Fold this protein.
Amino acid sequence: MTKTLQADLASGALAEAIADIAEDAARLILPYWRADTAVETKADASPVTEADRAAEALIVTRLAALYPGIQTVAEEAVATAGAPDQAEAWFWLIDPLDGTRGFVEGRESYTVNIALIHDGAPVAGVVVAPATATTWVSAAGEGAGVLRRRFGEPWQTVRVRDRPTTPVALLSHSMTDDEAGRLAARHGCAQWQGMDSSLKFCLIAEGRFDAYPRTGPTSEWDTAAGQAVLEAAGGRVLGGDGQPLRYGKPSFLNGPFVALGG
């Protein structure tokens, strides 16, 4: 089955497949949005809803049907049963609803995320923004760029922009204004904007922003699909050691990182 996975990765069939799956998960999520959906609190104090669980079940089931035997690491499964002891050479990282807190509060910047990891590197990824019916997926082939579409429309290729004279950063809503301003300035950005979810990676990938620094802890499923998209668009996601952020770390947790455009 790994041979099929690799062949589909090279041909672009895998990118199309995971884009379709993520869009179907997005359609499943939408009826819960701004509908007074019940919210529970997980052990780590983060929120979870039935939308998270239903989307994850759909994604996991569909991926297993297409590529049986490939390890899956998915947020809600880990919250319930714990993280696997170690990552396999090939595995999926899934965040079925990134930005749940903003989703519950009615904001638009929540996403569906699926990434394929090989030997610690994200080799394919898709991010879908259900509220705007927009999908970003890493294209097949080195330097092929990122494909973006509105649901049902043709794909368009997008890339990072050259770093402008006045670069603009995207930062987590969890930071205070003073913290955000200092962090943006540390990466050469006098201006910044707060935003939820992995959408930040995608907006850098399509050339609208320039940097996304993060100091607080994140889980690998929060970043893997966004990193795959941004790297395909010509950007970088660097860990605290200055090297590309890697996956399959203990407990599937990230340290500090910065996502950069051109």
In short: Residues 2-157 form a domain with the Fructose-1,6-Bisphosphatase; Chain A, domain 1 fold (CATH 3.30.540.10). The first helix runs from residue 2 to 11.
